[in-house]
Specification:
alpha/beta, Aspartate Aminotransferase, domain 2, 7-stranded mixed β-sheet, binds pyridoxal-5'-phosphate, Aspartate Aminotransferase, domain 1
Length: about 400
């Protein structure tokens, strides 16, 4: 058996692995483990989307290879969504591409832009794909610390000139995974100006734009005039429509970025099943969708308030986030993120994610995902209160 390629060696082991082993051991011992670890919605996909899929799957035209860049109807639906939601207009032919989930698109975009000697400006902590694929592609991820004092926004002015000049990509993600932070339009303006100045492609990962609370509405990077010359945005149906298993998203914006991404994608995959795109088209265009998302957010907001109150009662410094379904909670003194996550699992049977899994600046935090029913969340908080000494 030959050794795998060198590039595999640059990929750090997932810190989740240790916790996962312990979780499996606890389950094997018969512990009723409650997982607040994974960001995977527990509620079902809207019924009208399922019904559209049931019809579409029977269409023999869809049993053949899909269009590489996505069906015309899906790309038009994506444009319609952006126009309605943010007042932004795209050309469906050149500025939109269907993806097999935004994870796929983000990973492939990196391969289209980053090679040896290139820098990618990557928030830390962050969704791991930005950093991992930069490493796999032979590039250099430059960490942008997201710290509480800065509202978990990167300080672009602190990036050394020499690094900015070598950078190809700048990743931003608000509402943010894992911190739950949101960004004002002024931050997007600053990021667009920065990327224009240094000739960098701005990559806005807007996976959580619809999951927001307390009346807050998240912007798109394209609310900044001229942003489509320097930016591409990833928008996924996974979170607002509980469709993580369906694998459907799209990229929109700079036609140059979309066409570069297309070169990697057409040589790698053959597009998403057209029936799935048709169901996703229904989600993007149906008048029922707004109510569906509003009700979903009410559920997450109730869970958020319950969790924040419960964690504070235990003595943890939890703050209610305005977006995403994650709470980013400082660990008690004397703990690392991994030791506290282990303690919660071993003493309370509750899985959370150690912040260090998202980067070095995630140390000192745990991430709590709200993708469980209220009853289970209450039970998790009860157990933590009973068994864990903070
Ligand atoms: N981006 C962020 C910030 C995420 O948290 C996730 C999933 O958790 C994704 C992208 C990927 O979403 P999907 O591939 O399901 O579209």
């Amino acid at each position: 058996m030959p050794a795998p390629a060198q590039r595999i060696k640059h990929v750090p082991p997932y810190l989740f692995a240790e916790i996962d082993k312990k979780r499996a051991a606890a389950v094997a011992r018969g512990v009723d483990v409650i997982s607040l670890g994974i960001g995977d919605p527990d509620l079902p996909t809207p019924q009208f989307v399922i019904e559209r899929m049931q019809q579409a799957v029977a269409n023999p035209q869809y049993h053949r290879y899909p269009d590489y860049e996505g069906s015309q109807a899906f790309r038009e639906a994506a444009c319609q969504f952006y126009r309605r939601r943010w007042g932004v207009v795209f050309d469906p032919q050149s500025q939109v591409m269907a993806l097999i989930g935004s994870k796929e698109g983000l990973a492939h975009l990196i391969w289209a832009y980053v090679g040896p000697g290139d820098v990618a400006l990557v928030p830390d902590p962050a969704y791991p794909v930005y950093r991992t694929h930069t490493l796999l592609a032979g590039g250099e991820p430059y960490p942008l610390p997201l710290i509480r004092e800065n509202g978990f926004l990167p300080d672009l002015k602190a990036i050394p000139e020499e690094v900015a000049r070598r950078a190809k990509l700048l990743f931003i993600n608000y509402p943010n995974n894992p911190t739950g932070a949101v960004a004002p339009l002024s931050f997007y303006e600053e990021a667009v100006a920065f990327c224009r100045r240094y000739d960098i492609l701005l990559v806005s990962d807007n996976a959580y734009s619809e999951i927001t609370f307390d009346g807050y509405r998240a912007p798109s990077v394209f609310n900044v005039p001229g942003a489509s010359e320097v930016a591409v945005e990833f928008w996924s149906l996974s979170k607002p429509f509980n469709m993580t298993g369906w694998r459907i998203a799209f990229a929109a914006g700079s036609s140059e970025a979309i066409s570069a991404l297309g070169i990697i994608k057409t040589n790698t995959d053959s597009g998403q099943f057209t029936a799935i795109q048709e169901a996703a088209t229904a989600a993007l265009t149906s008048p029922e969708s707004e109510r569906f998302v509003a009700e979903l957010n009410e559920v997450y907001q109730r869970r958020r308030d319950l969790a924040v109150a419960g964690l504070r009662a235990i003595g943890l410094d939890a703050s209610p986030m305005k977006g995403s379904f994650y709470l980013w909670v400082p660990v008690p003194a004397g703990h690392t993120s991994a030791s506290f996550a282990t303690l919660l699992l071993e003493q309370a049977g509750v899985v959370v994610t150690p912040g260090a899994a998202y980067g070095q600046y995630g140390e000192g935090y745990i991430r709590i995902s709200l993708c469980v029913k209220e009853e289970r969340l209450k039970e998790a908080l009860r157990r933590i209160q009973k068994y864990v000494k903070v």
